[in-house]
Amino acid sequence: MSEIISISLSFLIFCIFLYAPLNINRSKIFNFGSTYQIGVANLIINLNFLVLISLLPFKLGSYLSFYFTALILISIFNLFKKTEIFKFNKLILSLFFVLFFIISLDIASKLDLGWDAKWFWYIKSLYFFQNYDFSHLSHYEFNSFHPHFGSYLWAFFRELSLSKIEYSGRIFYAFLYLSSLFFLIDKFKENKIQNFIIIFLLLLITYKYKLFSGLQEILIFSILIIISKLIYEFINQKKNTYLLFIILCMNLILWIKAEGIAYFMIILIALNLIKNFTFEKRLLLITSSLVLILFKTLIYNHFQISLNDQPYFIEYILNLDFQTIIFKLKNIIIYGTFYSLKNIIFFIIPIIFLINYKILFKDEFNKIIFIIFTLNIGFIVCAYMFREMEVVYSLRTTMDRIIFTSSGLYIFYFINFLRSKNYLKKYIS
Fold first, then answer.
1. 116-130, 139-153, 167-181: least confident range
2. Quick one: which of 89, 81, 97, 104 has its CA closest to 163?
3. Which whole-number Å values give the CA distances from 359 to 346, 356, 367, in the listed order?
4. Could you give the CA distance from residue 237 to residue 34 in angstroms, rounded to a whole number?
5. How far apart are CA 401 and CA 389, in angstroms?
């Protein structure tokens, strides 16, 4: 019973991060088109605030209650500005809660942390939970290999919960994951049954407890889902708002995992290849990207944290011989194919490209997703080719997670394809 109450209260706490600071009762604020878009925008804003706060020399317990109280007060102010207090669709919100509750119970009942979580992520979360600040992470041996933000969220929401149990921070990962999936169907409002089918289909394809065992891939995966839809909206509406929130999402992935910089650069390159991308927008994107990278570099330098503690070295790359290259490439193809076949989204995307070959470079969104996929493949090949580590072991232990993380970029494209071809309408009345 206590777990049921704790999970339910956690859901209410997490929802506060959807209701503030932007007013969800004003769907036109920031030129967003729907209430749920405003909710996700609030979530992105709050997560970026937390990135900044996590870097400050303050103990978690000293400011957490003030921050949350401020959000509650803003939420109450926003909600009561209109008589429609609960602007979110009640049916959608109810389904959201039920799914969150089920996933959270699964997380609470297993409590088995992944290998990386046990040795890296959970330990770093304990630093914050035990009221150490970011500066203390420089004393942790593996800190520079793994950015801190996912661990910080783990500690933040654990401290914010009533139970203070370990998993109470980790279930926020489930909340972000579901928020990204529901963000996808917000585009399609005409058929609620289809939307519910889409949600259950995506859960069937993407949900595994392993992903919520303290591993950080699920965070980047969820943010990449949001980015992909924001790119679609930006291409079609050309509003600076969408570009702004893409940039904010790009900032988040920089602070979650080391490979976040790769996804950051992939998105940056792809956006610059959008047709009729104005000089002002291009300047905003490039300048903002440089500022974000420079900011992280300065922070790392200030706290004497290395930016390159991954096993990539110029000397090793320059001395790669032909035989080693062929051996690595062969294994990359073998394991890449194997894990792609196990990931439905990643496997089906090239097939969709073939089906859409006539419009692949005529439709702007198709083109950008194709560019992103091509750059993504290039990143995966280079990541293993130039890594000074036994390649087979590296592929067997990490390739499945990289492919899963990357697949977040293509889920909206996949759903949009099904919609455009009326496949869902054909089989679902």
1. 139-153
2. 104
3. 20, 6, 8
4. 14
5. 17
Task: Please tell me the distance from the alpha carbon of residue 404 to that of residue 381, in angstroms, as a whole number.
Answer: 15
pLDDT value, residue 411: 96
Which DSSP string do the residues of 182-204 spell out, in sequence order?
HHHHTT--S-HHHHHHHHHHHHH
> What is this structure's pTM?
0.94
Q: Where are the beta strands (DSSP E) in 43-153?
A: none
Check: CB of residue 108 under 8 Å from CB of residue 163. Answer: no
84-114 burial, b at 16+ Cβ within 10 Å, e below that, comes to eeebbbeebbebbbebbbebbeebbeeeebb
Cα–Cα distances in angstroms (integers) from residue 201 to residues 18, 38, 137, 195, in the given order = 24, 25, 40, 10
Q: Which residue has the tokens 């990539």?
A: 312
Cβ burial, residue 3 (10 Å; 0-12/13-18/19+): middle
- Mean pLDDT, to the nearest integer, of 88-112? 90
Looking at residue 85, what is its pLDDT?
45
| Better-predicted residue by pLDDT, 177 or 163 | 177
Per-residue pLDDT band for 180 (boundaries 50, 70, 90) equals: very high
Q: Which residues contact 33 (CB under 8 A, 6 or more apart)?
A: 27, 233
* Mean pLDDT of the 76-98 span: 74
Say if residues 149 and 296 touch (Cβ distance below 8 Å): no
Please give the angle made by the CA atoms of 5, 9 and 13, to the nearest 5 degrees: 170
- Please classify residue 145 by burial: count the beta carbons closer than 10 Å to its beta carbon, then call 0-12 exposed, 13-18 middle and 19+ buried: middle
Q: Which two tokens stand for residue 401?
A: 């997670």
Structure tokens at 59: 């103990």
